[in-house]
Amino acid sequence: MQDPLTWHWQPFGASALLLEVHPVGQLANRAVLALAEHVRATAPVGLIAAVPAINSLLLTFEPLVLTSAALQAWLEPLLASVPPAPAEPLHIHELPVNYGGAAGPDLVAVAEALALTPHEVIDLHTSVTYRVMMLGFAPGFPYLGPLPAALHLPRRATPRNAVPAGSVAIAAGMTGIYPTCLPGGWHLIGRTPVTLFDPHGDPPALLAPGDGVRFVAC
Q1: What is the DSSP string of the chain?
Q2: Same domain flag for 76 and 119
Q3: The CATH number of the domain where 14 resides is what?
Q4: Which residues pair with 17 in a beta bridge?
Q5: Which domain holds residue 29?
Q6: Is residue 49 part of a domain?
Q7: Exposure of 108 by Cβ count < 10 A (0-12 exposed, 13-18 middle, 19+ buried)?
Q8: Model's pTM, two decimal places?
Q9: Could you tell me if residue 86 is inside a domain?
């Protein structure tokens, strides 16, 4: 049985409040996502944004309209009353992935490090539905979890200066997709042709926190 969730908050500058929930895990992430959605839907006057991360929620506000103390008083009953998001994501994206070769230059090395074959790595990676736990690092970059335990590896010892857009990667118990050409230290096992981020789109990011993702080998 998982320990009950506990919330802590602290000022984050003069116009923001940072909430953190522990223990870190899937339930904590679901609680953060549900609270963020509820806060956006019922926001008091003066609240500017609610930005979820894996186990935290950053709330920005206009201090001349909404004080930190008033925001905390409004939030406190919500922490116990808002249930976590459903265990199964409601909106699931299926993304095609070309694994290995030029699209996934680290696949063979990953398989060797894990004492698996490349096909076993692919089978494991495509075997589960991942949750978008947060967007971060760069616009539209999804942190997806949980990654099957058999695929857990630390980040690469030496990051790359440029990772192609669409690269599907794993590191530190998570999988992610590089939305644009970026530097990065995750292990590249494949690439999707799907556009993850379009600055002119509405919304610009294809994936949102709380969405589900399934990878399909092609």
Answers
A1: -PPPPEEEEEE-STTEEEEEEES-SHHHHHHHHHHHHHHHHSPPTTEEEEEE-SSEEEEEE-TTTS-HHHHHHHHHHHHHHSPPPPSS-SSEEEEEEEESTTT-TTHHHHHHHTT--HHHHHHHHTSSPEEEEEE-SSTT-EEEEPPPGGG--PPPSS-EEEE-TTEEEEETTEEEE-SSSEEE-SEEEEE--S--B-TTSSSSBS--TT-EEEEEE-
A2: no
A3: 3.30.1360.40
A4: 11, 59
A5: 6-81
A6: yes
A7: middle
A8: 0.91
A9: no
The two structure tokens encoding residue 201:
């789109």
| Count of domains observed in the chain | 2
**Residue 123 backbone phi and psi in degrees, to 5:** -60, -40
Question: Do 128 and 176 belong together in one domain?
Answer: yes
User: Which residues, given as ranges, of the chain have pLDDT below 50?
Assistant: none
Length of the chain, please? 218
Exposure class string for 124-153: b at 16+ Cβ within 10 A, else e: bbeebebbbbbbbeeebbbbbbbbeeebeb
Which residue, 52, 81, 110, sits at the end of a domain? 81
Q: Which of 81, 114, 132 is the last residue before a domain boundary? A: 81
Per-residue tokens: 119 = 């096909």
As a whole number of angstroms, the distance between CA 81 and CA 93 comes to 30
pLDDT tens digits along 22-79: 999 999 999 999 999 999 999 999 999 999 999 999 999 999 999 999 999 999 999 9
CA angle 211, 97, 136 (to 5 degrees): 45
Strands 47-52 and 174-177: unpaired
